[in-house]
Design a protein that fits this description.
By secondary structure, the chain is mainly beta. It has a single domain (27-187), classed as Porin, CATH 2.40.160.20. Helices cover 12% and strands 74% of the residues. It contains one helix and eight strands. The two termini are 37 Å apart.
Amino acid sequence: MKATKTVTLGALLSLLTATPALALDSGWYAGASYAQTSYKESGLSELDLSALQAQGGYRLTPHLALETRLGLGVGDDSTRESIYGERVDATAEIDYVVSGFAKAILPLDAVELYVIAGVTYASIEYDVRLVDYGYSASGDDSGSDFSYGAGLAVNPNDNVSVFIEYVNYYDKDEVEIDGYNVGVNFYF
């Protein structure tokens, strides 16, 4: 009976001490980031929009990961334009952004350089008002495009990664959405 308890206790202790090491090698990670983006459309002033993003991914190898992201707008911007002699007020905000990326990673000890490439679907909410006539309209516009970027991650320990990156989310039909993200990922 005493031998059974000793073997069981030993097996339990080895399982508990092995579990953290197994967790670090699982490849899964999740995190959050703040995105400060620029919305540029032909004929309009640049708008600064912001979003909070959640991301999750799986590291297939030390040099390759697959990642998904979901961002929700937290800040809008406004501009007053003169279009064909008419004063127009416009306000825009990110409704949501959904991305899927492949991530190529160059690990350098506690620092990693990486590039990402994938697809983003973005939805922007807007309000437009003709100042002189009082006419206003609101709605949203959405679309998808090839996305790419590059970043730098600092890993203070095996479970945490802090990163800064540039991402071009959308660039077609005379509209471009790009910007910088700062965030943290947790590996488990």
